Amino acid sequence: MKSVDVFRIFNSTWDNSYPDKRLSQLQSLRQTLDSEHHEFFDGMLDAKLAGIQDLATATVVILIHGIQTDGAWQKIVEKEIGSLPHTNVIGLGYECVSPLQLASPIRRAPIEKIKQDIRDARAREPAARFMVIAHSFGSYILSRILPSATDISFERIILCGCIIPTNYPWGHYTRQMAPKSILNDVGTRDFYPVMATFTSFGYGSSGRKGFQNPHIKDRYFDYGHSDFFVPEKKHVETYWKPFIKQGEIIESKWDQEKPKTGITLLMLCHPYIGRTLFYAIIISLAIVLTLYFL
Amino acid sequence: MFAEKLLPLISSFPQDAEALRRMAEYLGDFESRRGPAVFKIRLNPNRLFDIMQAGSTSRLARLVSILVEGEIIRREVVVRFPSGSGITFESYSDLPFLIRDPDRDIDVRVTEENIEASYILVTNEVS
Amino acid sequence: MLSKEEKKLSLVIFKLLKETASQLVVKNFLESKRVPKSAANWDELYEKRILPALNQKKFTVNEFRQLLQQVEEFGRQHTFLFQCDPARAIAIISPTRIKKIAQQEGLDSLLTTPLDLELPEAATIVDIRILHPDHNKTPVSLTIKIVETRITKTFDSELIDHAKGVITKKWKFAKKRAVNIATLDHTGLLELRIASQDNQTKYTNLVKELLIKIRKFIPHDGFNMISLNYAKSRILTDRILLADEIRYSNSTARNDLGAVMQISSSSQEDNLSSDDGSMAALDSFLASDGHVTGTNVYVKIPDTKPQRELHLLISGEVNEFAVPVACSAGEYSYVRGKVIALNK
Question: What's the pTM?
Fold first, then answer.
């Protein structure tokens, strides 16, 4: 049994019992639970008896990390964003995904896991405002969840190192979101989104080029793939905290200073041109090597 | 300082670190102002909710369970009388059906209306 | 002459007034309409004063109903305050939207004519009012009135069976009408006014039920509770400044050591703030990690002779205050304004 199940069953018993029988019914229910849940159960009872109610201003910020990482950056974000009042930061994890898995079409397991984790978080805090920060493969996971899980929605979204295709139909899946609620922080030295685009299928270079889409605010930084989490850069404090707190978008100076994107990179970012070139080179190399060794 | 007892919990529960840090700051501030009176602290769930900025009942329950299992606080269940005084019990299962109000010297039914949780600090002293 | 339906309606309204108001309130209304008001009892008041006046069109059944609204919609209630973004509030109270939802729910007739229900089986929406004085501007507010039946128990008798060692107690129960109001104004202030309960201090379930009942018209997303903790403290800390406006009766405070302080005047008529010793004790308690958890005062209504005071309780939930006595709409509005002003 998960704690969210304990939460559900507690609330159901509370709501469906007569007040004078409630305590005894809850005590009976408690006996049926594993001891690991007893303290949480008692804490719920404490809160209910004290008349505490979930705040509509409470915020839950979901963090979804990328591949080959356990999301160590999440601790940095937890510290900064968690300092906001009544804000719960939940770092979601999944089994480590290797680059091979990333390149393959087998990506379902992490998506399903994260989807369920978000649902559980929502069940535990139904009144809270939900927001998400997704990095790299985490952004891809988010892009797969939004179309299939219509019960999952966010008030604000932050993407970084994003590998979602640039033609992703944001307008379809984020209709309920207010304008300027989705930020895409782009690292102009980030090659991973480009590589993901031309080496595989289903990914895009939005983390390098931006979406350039009216639903998304692209912001450009002189960063590599994970420079958003380098403590010295204070990116979380400067650019994400105000956005989470009050929707304030702090502009990046690099937007005006960034160099023009070269033609080679633009070609590599193109899903058909880049992929064709890449696989043409691979196949050519394979042929050359085969002939050489024959 | 008592607040240092929370440091291991802050490391072990990164997701709740900020809320636990707020609790540590509150205790540290209290102890620096009022010294040993910190060991007499008795907080109710509403106060903990405000101090730790829990935001929701489920999060408060989770934070309380971390603090109780971490032996920072201990729960007592208080039956509160109209005079403001109360009688404490160790757990909800210890609550009787009827209780004697010591200030008015009458029997009072124990109901949801007069029960509240109360948290005291776990100290090494034998009380 | 009144039609049969109008006469029937006037009788329903009268019966409801009889349960809610005093004869004085009704007589004052008659006086304002220049109708003779002397009567030996309620029945005589209706038969000899009200019904003839209605027949002679000294006032209409609608105006009579408005008197009932004034009486039963204000006072003897616990109020819970919430706040949303003004833009959201304006969108919610849009007349087009409200009319559409009312039609979908089969309640569109309530937009023009309220339902006069005495004791409905279940909580029922009986009135939907949009205050929109200037159609060139946004509406001012949306009010939804819900009537429910509550059961009250009174102890009747006790039978002692000595042989079996059993005491059997009997309670009688009676049904009582309760009126709850939800009002959302264009500034985003949502006020839930719930009729006072007889023997329960907690209103959490009633608030929840009311929010569920109105949720199609006023969805609760985006509303935050307005904490009145600051007002509770300010009533105490600014008591000298507020001496001409508020008479102080009692306070409850709690500190972080679990100590509870309750300090009261000897009777509800006295003014505790004139007792320096009590006030010094409370100030000292609050200075040492204490905070006010409840306050019980009397708000002086201006321009009233003799000075009228309205009982105000700020305790219970963090966003709750109560006016536990009957009052007029104007008096309630003054007190609510005072609470909100003190909370800033």
Answer: 0.81
